[in-house]
Amino acid sequence: MDKEPRFIANVLIDGKKEKVHVKNTGRCKEILIKGTKVYLEKSNNPNRKTKYSLISAYKEDQLINIDSQVPNKVVFDAIKSNRIKELENIKVLKREVTFGNSRFDLYFEKDKESGFIEVKGVTLENNGLSLFPDAPTERGTKHIKEMIKVVESGLKGYIFFLIQMENIKYFTPNTSMDEKFSNALIEANKKGVNILAYNSIVKEDSIKINEKIEVLI
User: Fold this and answer.
1) Which terminal residue of the chain, N or C, has fewer Cβ atoms less than 10 Å from its own Cβ?
2) CA separation (Å) from 98 to 94, 108, 158, 162, 172?
3) Cβ proximity of 62 and 165 under 8 Å
4) Residues 6 or more apart whose Cβ sits within 8 Å of residue 130
5) Which of 49, 59, 46, 44 is nearest to 1 (CA)?
6) pTM greater than 0.85
7) Where are the alpha helices (DSSP H) in the chain?
8) What is the pLDDT of residues 113-165, one digit of tens each?
9) Dist CA 205 CA 45 (whole Å)
């Protein structure tokens, strides 16, 4: 498999080269390399330029989901089914709610608490350590700074890193890739924003939340 410009990759399907859509806004350069086994999702839209979307890929023997649209739904479903200890017994859960100058992925209410959750999908792994981001993200830094304002206003704030692979025990911000994002996350942790990371069980056609892992900040 050869990577083309952003969002497009060349994949061999039964020996024939096919241009496919890459469902990820990051770089994934450590994953999408020549010879990698990938899984595709066929589109039912006859007007689309590409017939398939690339949704997951193997890095050595680890299957990694790279669909950027998946993490929000996985975390939403996990909260609804009480799979996340820190966010159990939520009474109200809404998607895409605005606070200040940012729109956060989730808004929740439980008992006398309410607050916001920002979800980040993680696909980068190095020697068993998961890292975010895999490309500079001004938008991600803005979200973290806005989440600090959420906490300062008296609401609860969560930055939730969904590790889109299974055999991972640790998460840390990728300082060498984006120092501003990493510094903002460190500041958020000091200011009382809750930083959570959970790994996932990834199959050829599914992904679900697995277990909490240690955050190294």
Assistant:
1) C
2) 11, 12, 15, 21, 27
3) yes
4) 122, 124, 161, 163, 165, 168, 170, 171, 172, 197, 199, 213
5) 59
6) yes
7) 70-80, 138-152, 179-191
8) 999 999 999 999 999 999 999 999 999 999 999 999 999 999 999 999 999 99
9) 19
Specify the pairing of strand 113-122 against strand 156-163: parallel
Residue 198, amino acid: Y
C-alpha span between 192 and 189 (Å, rounded): 5
Token pair listed for 100: 């200040």
The total of other beta-carbon atoms located within 10 Å of residue 5's CB is 7
77: which residues sit within 8 A by CB, 6+ positions away?
208, 209
Instruction: Determine phi and psi for 44, rounding to 5 degrees.
Output: -95, 5
Question: CA–CA separation, 38 vs 21, rounded Å?
Answer: 12
The separation between the first and the last C-alpha atoms of the chain, rounded to the nearest angstrom, is 35
